[in-house]
Amino acid sequence: MDKKIRLILLIVFILLFVSISAVTLIYSFGYTLSNGLRLQKSGMFDIKTTPRGAQILLNGKPYQSFLEKINPSTKNNFATSPVKISGLTPGEYTVAIKLNGYHNWEKKLFINPGETTYLENVRLFPQESPKELYQINNQNIISVALSLDKKRMAILTESSVVIIDLKTQAVKQIDFDATNDSKKLLWGNNDSLLIAGNNLIEINSDFKIKKLPSAIKKEQFSLSSDYDNNIYYWDQNIFYIKNISKESAAEEKIIVGQDLAISDVLIKNNRFYLLAKNKQSNKTSLIISDIKDKKTSSSVDLPAISDYSFINQDNTWINIKDEKNKIAYLIEEPRLFSNEFKIKKIENYQLGAWLKDKKMLIAGDFDLKIWSRNDDTENLLTRTSQPIIYTAWSNDDNYILYSTNKTVYSFELDNRDSHSQIELINMFSLKVTETSPDGKMLYFVGKQSDKDNYKIYSLKIID
User: pTM for the complete prediction?
Assistant: First the structure.
């Protein structure tokens, strides 16, 4: 090799070294070359997923760093989570995350100069088929109720009640001796008792069943298991307490007012709460009394003339729904040495789910929003073409679940303008949806065609 060729090769080597070093230094100082070879401050993505090991695609292509592309030993290496992708030209990117056996995640995101865009709580949902647990044979579903500890779900039909253990997936059907003529389905406070239609069921290994006392009218009763298995029921302005473990014992009576008619009862926190309508003015009051001394401690008038019922019993606030006007009233009881009730009015309310007494997920007719207790704001999340029948927070609070009468969705909460939404289930008809206590399983009642019977299904949503 003559001197001229060696000189050329040396010059080429020096130029390559300088070029690569310059590019490396540019990237190391957080800069990139944009269109027109203009030097610009770069940005980066910081991506973490559950589970780990998901492939990252930017604008439809699996991502590789510059050094991986030019290094023969790493040219087939592609980024997987968790990963930090640096040296990106500012602008909009379509970020896709893929992992075998899971639903794909995709969203358009921006990279700003000198900033990091974080994707730290991306949850990937398993892509599995629902598992059939039980078939409800040719019976109309009257009502569905979740126990207060969220460990069991009861489904009331015309002639039976089906009880599902949401931890073990064990299913128990209890048939009634006669046709059930009541729509009442109510769990006791410690979930050891269940009222199903005209029947009282002890939730144990035997599932003993007995008829409710004949004095109780079909729909006018409540239930508590905290105080010697008491049943509470009412007729007009008289509130009754009956101990079902002592069938021969006389019932206690509490008269709430000559001009009042009780419409609903809630038992919680060593108290009973009564909704009572004044026969003269037609206005409803919330009356609060102590269970032990049976004395009224306070009351508050509700701000509208309508029919009310208690909802969302697992919350520290008293939640009341005006079904006719689709309004929810959230009532915080007076604190010590105060007589002032705090009342929050939420309009266009169909159903809701609380997050640790701080936020409420609210479904209206065709929209989904979040109300924050701290700053008293409502933020719209999405609108739907079908009525929403179920809402719930995920176990990591970064996602919510909601369902229409056909489809169940997961919906990401990440405080950005766009949200990642994934269709988890699509059926011909959905009646009810619930999650297991640990948030890992989804249970629902549905059918796949018009000719199909309703069945109970389970679906794993979190590994």
Answer: 0.81
